[in-house]
Automatic annotation (TrEMBL):
InterPro entries for this protein: GK1464-like, GK1464-like_dom
Pfam short name (any one): DUF5634
Domain GK1464-like: 5-99
Name of the molecule in the record: GK1464-like domain-containing protein
Length: 103
């Protein structure tokens, strides 16, 4: 499997450029960037969002190389909230459909 690695800043800039559209499209109260370094080469990037007073962390798993560049490990969003997590959303649209069903 050939992974395309890009600088972390490129991914963050892409996410930041979408924040306003996502807030408007999905009626969010707040949105920010979410980053978490996992075990070994695992890395997670996405958004922290607030919708209807609830906080959700939504992220995609990445793999980090020796140059600290990242490649998407799997096109699958994870939604984390205080009472658990939901995995397997393929698009942001699916993420927000799932969030609407969760509360």
């Amino acid at each position: 499997m050939n992974m395309e690695y890009v600088p972390r800043e490129t991914i963050l800039n892409d996410l930041k450029s979408e924040m306003e559209n996502i807030m408007d499209d999905y009626g969010l109260e707040d949105i920010g960037i979410y980053e978490e370094e996992g075990e070994g080469k695992d890395y997670y990037i996405g958004y922290t969002i607030r919708k209807d007073g609830k906080i959700y962390m939504i992220n995609i798993p990445f793999v980090k190389n020796d140059k600290n560049e990242l490649a998407i490990a799997e096109q699958s969003w994870t939604i984390q909230q205080e009472n658990g997590e939901h995995k397997g959303c393929r698009t942001l649209g699916e993420v927000f459909q799932t969030i609407n069903q969760l509360h």
